[in-house]
């Protein structure tokens, strides 16, 4: 086995981090009641630092946006299709997000860098700069709208649709994910940059996000009845690592995307479920076990799906 292969060298560290968390959970080094506190630490501290720092250097006028917009159009279409399939309720939003949200940082960056070089990374970083902003904000808005509707139905309160939408929008904006993204994006437009005294702590906190989140996935996995959730996790993983890249390749090709742009977008679509979805499910306490199992199963499946995608893409005609 060639451990220097881009797919293996990118995915195996993720598998190892989840495994370390699993062993830690089995050994009861982290108590079950502490998992929620660790999740809050990652979601409310590490994620905030990573998102704000990432967005604080983004200048939209310099980004190559056409392939990225096509990526988000495909992701949004798949999200709403999954929403219909899963029942259009708040739990469906979490499962639909799992079908479209890729692990772009921990796996995507090293994989694209090794496979496609600096030019590929520039395109990937353009996608990453908007990935959480677009997908997490979309999912948050839809989920908040669904939760507001469900709460109104339970209480018997007849709330005007506009009031429900405004409440959902307010909850979606003043939320731990969109807020640092929007704040970072606004700060970036000032051109001031981040002073090293501020930038270094944010960098250290952001760097800790991926490893700690994946270890936390492993800890949660050790406390989850995988057998009960395996069928659902397999279904989610198939959507994420097979349906998503096939749809991306088909739509991208039909819209004239070729070469490096098509390769990077399809490979990113084939990546496993990102840890942000796990934290999203923890935050809302929706489908936590299914998403946890889905992260692990999709990571294993991506060893095959990403390898196949990278083998087939060069065979496609360039015209």
TrEMBL record:
- Per the UniProt record, the source organism is Limnohabitans lacus
The name this protein carries in UniProt is AEC family transporter
Q: Give compartment(s).
A: Cell membrane
The membrane topology noted for this protein in its Swiss-Prot or TrEMBL record is: Multi-pass membrane protein
Q: TM segments?
A: 6-25, 37-56, 68-87, 94-116, 122-143, 164-188, 208-226, 238-256, 262-281, 293-316
Q: Which UniProt keywords apply?
A: Cell membrane, Membrane, Transmembrane, Transmembrane helix, Transport
InterPro entries, sorted:
Mem_transp_PIN-like (IPR004776), Na+/solute_symporter_sf (IPR038770)
Main subcellular location of this protein, as a coarse class: membrane
Q: Which family does it belong to?
A: Belongs to the auxin efflux carrier (TC 2.A.69) family.
Pfam hit, one: Mem_trans
Tell me the PANTHER family matching this sequence.
Answer: AUXIN EFFLUX CARRIER FAMILY PROTEIN, TRANSPORTER AUXIN EFFLUX CARRIER EC FAMILY
Identify the domain of life.
Answer: Bacteria
